[in-house]
Amino acid sequence: MDSQLETMETSDADCVSDVEGGDTPDARPDRSSWIPTLIKSKKKKEGEQPPASSTSSPHRVVAQPYLYNMKYANVGKCVIINNENFHRSTGMGARSGSDKDAKDIQHCFQNLGFQVVVKNDQTCEKMEALLEKVAEEDHSNYACFACILLSHGEEGLIYGTDGTIPIKKMTTPFRGDQCRTLVGKPKLFFIQACRGSKLDIGIEADAATTSDSEEDDASPKNKIPIEADFLLAYSTVEGYYAWRNVRDGSWFIQSLCKEINEHGRQLEIMQILTRVNFAVATGFESANIDPDFDGKKQVPCITSMLTKELYFQT
């Protein structure tokens, strides 16, 4: 078991700036008047594929490929938007520790073979323009696309340095009807940001519950939903804070990096993300002299519209 870290945590309900060495949720300013108190963060140590089936129906169900085709010249482009400093008008404090997240996730995706672009402290307009520009590029020689958003947030919204923008605006340019060269290919979004101001108190669990063939991508002649082949991995579930250590990075991104570094070329993406869920849910917990912020937990959330299994090995 790793040694406990003595930290100071604040709410990224950021009425105040981050305090050195502590954990803090990536949220909007808290409406209450509570003051950050001394706390500490504890971190624990941590076959044969069935054939695709075809079905006959009056709705012309077409036999689907079982695996995403990764045999392209390049794995994909990865865009990292790391927002750490915010205009005073937003009321949001600096997201100390986010630079470590950005550096670690950049290294992680480069190791997978992605071409990584990192942009720091982007306004809403710049964020939207950046992703629109990337979506307009030719991805014909790429197997997939990935985007990592590191910022403050609320439900359905992500913060630029000057305010909020709907997350939907970040993903829409990559829909099948707008980015033709990514049709039938996975579009992955990893979002480190709060989704509300609830705190997860956790619950005591029974010990038994916590112990330890290749096809081409969709043919243009076959219709697929324009929202297909997206995956959004959120750092927390709807309505809740997401925690970030101001020295060591966020619980979610650091767990994601660890799992990808160890298993990124062996496991399918949903297996990787399920392990990330487990790591965050069981390996982190806040401790606070204020009972309102003591023993708080977090679990990431996966929203998948993927239509095939994704393995990063080529």
Automatic annotation (TrEMBL):
A molecular function (GO) term: cysteine-type endopeptidase activity
Active site, per annotation: 152, 194
Entry's Gene Ontology cellular component terms: cytoplasm
Chain ranges of the Caspase family p10 domain: 220-314
InterPro entries reported for this sequence: Caspase-like_dom_sf (IPR029030), Caspase_cys_AS (IPR033139), Caspase_his_AS (IPR016129), Pept_C14 (IPR002398), Pept_C14_caspase (IPR011600), Pept_C14_p10 (IPR002138), Pept_C14_p20 (IPR001309), Pept_C14A (IPR015917)
Region (Disordered): 1-59
Biased segments, Acidic residues type: 9-23
Coiled coil: none
Keywords noted in UniProt: Apoptosis, Hydrolase, Protease, Thiol protease, Zymogen
Name used for this protein in its record: Caspase-7
Top-rank lineage group of the source organism: Eukaryota
Family: Belongs to the peptidase C14A family.
UniProt organism field: Pleurodeles waltl
GO biological process: execution phase of apoptosis; positive regulation of neuron apoptotic process; proteolysis
Domain (Caspase family p20): residue spans on this chain: 74-198
Pfam families xrefs: Peptidase_C14
Gene3D superfamilies (UniProt xref): 3.40.50.1460
